[in-house]
Design a protein that fits this description.
Radius of gyration: 19 Å
Strand content: 25-35%
Number of strands: 15
Helix content: 25-40%
Largest sheet: 7 strands, mixed
């Protein structure tokens, strides 16, 4: 089969190589899956760079989530077992962790419903306890993780303020349903949030960026606000001033969704059932900006790494726009 493999760490476009390799062999409790679509996530870029919290042995294949077909014909969502990730024609995954792909979504959309939307749902509902009528501030609102949070925030009845970088991404965020879009390149994020909320600030901040985004968030957080730390796409891990959190009476909450797979797998399945229901109602729908064939995967991962993409880029090993 064909698979992208990383033999040394570095930028995705430089270190990913498309090669012929053997199909992975399922171990106990695992199943072989034909990859129909593999969604690109920022962690795929971090894996290539050797900067992710998990460092698979070299060489490895990136690609942390797929929609695929099992030998018995089931269409499923899976997180492939590294080092044999999803940018390949076949993967293996744990049978117990497979989730049914929603019938209302095509392969590319289904592949993108998994990690980003699960992270958004757990962050907004389990960790932040977002309530209808509250104001939700989403950083990188036009990106893959942010776009999911925007849709889930609207589904929960929140007023959503999206922060983006550039006019093109502002248009995307508006189309996703943001009540207000702030372009950090040309606008003062803190002033815009305070003006939109009558000086109160955002009740919940969803931050997959870190760095300056976090610094601005805590300057416009509401009384009893909750900052959900999802990731550090900026490359800068902030150092919270706990005296500031005390004085302003807000919470800083971390979210590592992957832990739920081992600590509370039943919650992951219940979340998937809810996401499937929302997708069937048309309330949420993954934003797929590009569908590329297997040959285009390295360049596409690089675009995600560079922050130039919107929504999700999905790799289709067959090359077809399913």
């Amino acid at each position: 089969m064909q698979a992208w493999r990383v033999h040394r760490n570095g930028e995705p476009s430089e270190v990913m190589r498309l090669e012929e390799t053997d199909r992975p062999t399922p171990g106990d409790g695992q199943v072989l899956i034909e990859v129909l679509a593999a969604n690109i996530n920022f962690p795929d870029a971090l894996l290539c760079r050797g900067q992710y919290q998990v460092r698979p042995p070299l060489p490895f294949t990136p690609g942390v989530e797929i929609c695929g077909r099992t030998a018995d014909g089931r269409r499923v969502l899976a997180t492939p077992a590294l080092p044999d990730g999803g940018f390949a024609e076949y993967v293996v995954a744990d049978e117990a962790a497979l989730l049914p792909a929603p019938d209302t979504l095509d392969d590319a959309e289904a592949a993108a419903l998994h990690i980003g939307y699960q992270t958004g749902w757990f962050g907004l509902h389990r960790r932040a306890r977002l309530r209808a009528g509250e104001t939700l501030l989403v950083h990188a609102a036009a990106g893959g993780v942010g776009s999911a949070a925007v849709q889930l925030g609207k589904a929960a009845g929140a007023t959503v303020i999206g922060v983006v970088g550039g006019a093109g991404k502002a248009k995307t965020a508006t189309g996703l349903g943001c009540d207000l879009v702030v372009d950090r390149h040309s606008e003062d994020v803190v002033a815009a949030v305070k003006e939109a909320t009558g000086g109160r600030g955002a009740d919940v901040v969803y931050d997959p960026v870190g760095g300056d985004a976090y610094a601005k968030s805590v300057k416009c957080i509401a009384f009893e606000g909750r900052v959900i730390v999802v990731g550090f796409a900026s490359g800068v891990i902030p150092t919270p001033a706990l005296n500031h959190a005390l004085v302003k009476n807000y919470s800083i909450t971390g979210l590592h969704w992957g832990l739920y797979n081992t600590k509370d797998p039943a919650a992951v399945r219940a979340c998937h059932d809810e996401l499937t229901r929302l997708a069937a109602q048309g309330v949420i729908k993954p934003l797929i900006s590009e569908r590329v064939g297997l040959a285009g995967a390295a360049a596409a991962v690089q675009r995600v790494a560079d922050g130039t993409s919107t929504g999700r880029i999905v790799v289709l090993p067959s090359g077809a726009a399913r």
